[in-house]
Amino acid sequence: MSGTPTRLEQSGKAACVQCWIYLTYARLLNSGQPVQLVHQLPSRGIVIALTGNIPPGYRVPEEVFLIGVAADGIPHPSAHFHILQNAAHTRRLPRSSYLPLWPQPGLIPRDPERGDRFENLVFFGDPQNLAPELRDPNFASRIRGKFGIEFRLAGSDRWHDYSQADAVLAIRTFGSKPFLRKPATKLYNAWMAGAPFLGGADSAFSSDGSPGVNYLRCTSLEDVEAALLRLRDDIVLRRRIVREGRQAAERFLPGKLLELWMDFLGRTADRTAPAFFAKGRTSRKVYVLSQRAILAADRLRGGY
């Protein structure tokens, strides 16, 4: 859980598996929870699996209660229950729970020696998850010329290092798409790092944060430039957003998320699974079919 961060792409590692399955297992195990990490789907018990690792036509054994971790994917139709990383998605998907993704391991906060300097704007993430207009070199050139601000995309080996970040930018696209599959991790990583955050209209950001209070929402290039100008020239605003962010971040610290997992296992999983197993065969089939109908309707509504 500590040490030198490694690039997730090294040795064929997959980010979702690392962050959702292994890290969760390790932290639950270290806290004394009776969890097991297996490499094949078992034939009985409560099984928590990453949706992307479950075969499309998987038939769940009769003695298994399958909980699917959707992560960035679409909930699996064979799962009896879903773990979602976006609170907004749970509000329209029954038989699901919101469990936030763990914050960035080994996170290095903004260097306090930078004081009130406002010179570096940074994006932490895969470049394809940044709006094309912001990836365009003209954007970096423009804000350098207009505001004296340098913009860079942090490499995956530096996603934990916010030491030189005076502000964080994370906008997938301009517009109102809710991105129900995406988490608010970039938001609460920035909170923990002590850097003001400029985000898009992602539903996860507005569910976990408060636009105008602990982050600034931007839905156009003009919004981004206006927000940068405000943050550069209004130190009081900048300090307030950082302060509010630090307070909001308390809910997403690893210890708090571990408590959420333990509560989920002790309450939701340990109550929902026995209730399912107590059903007759016909009732179970109705349950499974209704799950698939719910997911089909959810996909038709879109917003992913």
Summary, kept brief:
By secondary structure, this protein is an alpha/beta fold. It is built from ten helices and nine strands.
Layout of strands and helices, then pairs:
Layout (H helix, E strand, L loop, with lengths): L14 H16 L13 E7 L12 E7 L11 E4 L2 H4 L5 E3 L21 E5 L7 H4 L1 H11 L2 E5 L12 E4 L14 H9 L3 E3 L3 H6 L7 E2 L3 H13 L1 H15 L4 H24 L3 H21 L3
Parallel strand pairs: 1-2, 2-3, 3-4, 5-6, 5-7, 7-8, 8-9
Helix pairs in contact: 5-8
Note down, in words, how this protein is organized.
The protein is an alpha/beta fold. The chain has 2 domains: 10-103 and 254-301, no CATH class; 112-252, Rossmann fold. The protein is 40% helix and 13% strand. Strands 6-5-7-8-9 form a 5-stranded parallel β-sheet, sandwiched between helices. Strand 3, helix 2 and strand 4 (96-98) form a beta-alpha-beta unit. Helix 5 crosses helix 8. The radius of gyration is 21 Å and the shape is elongated. The protein starts with 14 loop residues before the first helix and ends with a helix. Mean pLDDT is 93; it is low at 1-6 and 8-13.
